[in-house]
């Protein structure tokens, strides 16, 4: 039995995110008197690809995104917060209930711990720091994001990184680290070293929500933060001023 491409994608759970419109039936052209074009004959300007969007277009695209089913259950898209020219980029997993309500990443209990972690290395939300998530919409009941949701959403984060051009990325939690590094290596093995994401140094630490449940690992998270601070100092020392 030979399956069409659409049938093979569907069998893998990878239905295309968009469908090509059916071509209109060819019909005989009738001569007609000169008339202004009908509204739906005027070509709409094509939306730019995500990888080409400027910051504001990208933000609007995230807020109105329907690339996966999470838009049906979210309150709003959560784009990110902070200085779009920041040297530090913090990447988390996905908005939770509070973030979904307020439209800002890391504003719940885990967010308060993240702010404390940043303060421990002299950083403050909004000052030379940008905070974003891999997923821009909340998964219902905070379930793990599906591979299809990540595939649909990751291009937004990739474009944010292209535009911000941070000097260092801190991936908080297994999910952000594995998504950016395209690996399934356990977080315990990803910590403690400097990775590269498209040439940008990337350091992995535990997610603050995990640390709230496992406070004994806060000492390890502190080591990661010290590594991040040292790495940033080295990056800056190595750059011509
Ligand atoms: N956890 C995340 O990973 N991101 C948020 O924005 C909130 C909680």
Spatial shape: globular
**Range of helix content:** 25-40%
Q: From the structure provided, what is the oligomeric state, counting identical versus distinct chains?
A: single chain
Q: What gyration radius follows from the Cα positions, in whole Å?
A: 22 Å
Cα distance spanning the termini: 65 Å
Order of helices and strands: HHEEHHEHEHHEEHH
Strand content: 5-15%
Written account of the structure:
- The chain is an alpha/beta fold.
- It has one domain (about 50-235): Uracil-DNA glycosylase-like domain (Uracil-DNA Glycosylase, subunit E, 3-Layer(aba) Sandwich), CATH 3.40.470.10.
- It has helices at about 5-10, 55-65, 95-100, 110-120, 145-165, 175-180, 185-190, 210-215, 220-235; strands at about 80, 90, 130-135, 170, 195, 200-205.
- The N and C termini lie far apart (about 65 Å).
- The model is unreliable at about 1-40 (pLDDT under 50).
- The structure holds uracil.
Give a short summary of the structure.
This protein is α/β, with parallel strands linked by helices. It is built from nine helices and six strands.
Question: Keywords for this structure?
Answer:
9 helices; globular; binds uracil; six-stranded mixed β-sheet; 241 residues; alpha/beta; Uracil-DNA Glycosylase, subunit E; single chain
Give a topology summary.
Blueprint: H1 5-11, H2 55-63, E1 81-82, E2 88-92, H3 97-102, H4 109-120, E3 129-133, H5 147-164, E4 168-172, H6 174-181, H7 187-190, E5 195-197, E6 200-205, H8 208-213, H9 218-237
Parallel strand pairs: 2-3, 2-4, 4-6
Antiparallel strand pairs: 1-3, 5-6
The chain binds uracil.
The site of uracil has 11 residues, from loops.
């Amino acid at each position: 039995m030979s399956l069409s491409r659409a049938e093979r994608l569907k069998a893998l759970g990878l239905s295309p995110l968009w469908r090509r419109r059916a071509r209109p039936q060819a019909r005989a052209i009738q001569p007609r008197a000169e008339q202004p074009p009908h509204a739906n004959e005027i070509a709409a300007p094509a939306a730019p690809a995500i990888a080409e969007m400027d910051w504001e277009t990208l933000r609007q695209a995230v807020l109105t995104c329907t690339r996966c089913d999470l838009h049906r259950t979210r309150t709003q898209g959560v784009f990110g917060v902070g200085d779009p020219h920041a040297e530090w980029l913090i990447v988390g997993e996905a908005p939770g209930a509070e973030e979904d309500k307020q439209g800002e990443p890391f504003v719940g209990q885990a967010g308060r711990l993240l702010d404390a972690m940043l303060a421990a290395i002299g950083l403050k939300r909004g000052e030379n720091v940008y905070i974003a998530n891999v997923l821009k919409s909340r998964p219902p009941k905070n379930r793990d994001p599906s591979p299809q949701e990540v595939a649909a959403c990751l291009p937004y984060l990739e474009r944010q990184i292209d535009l911000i051009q941070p000097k260092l990325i801190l991936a908080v939690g297994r999910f952000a680290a594995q998504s950016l590094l395209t690996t399934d290596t356990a977080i315990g093995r990803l910590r403690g070293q400097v990775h590269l994401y498209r040439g940008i140094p990337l350091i992995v630490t535990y997610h603050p929500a995990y640390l709230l449940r496992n406070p004994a690992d806060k000492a390890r998270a502190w080591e990661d933060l010290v590594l991040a601070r040292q790495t940033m100092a080295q990056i800056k020392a190595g750059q011509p001023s």
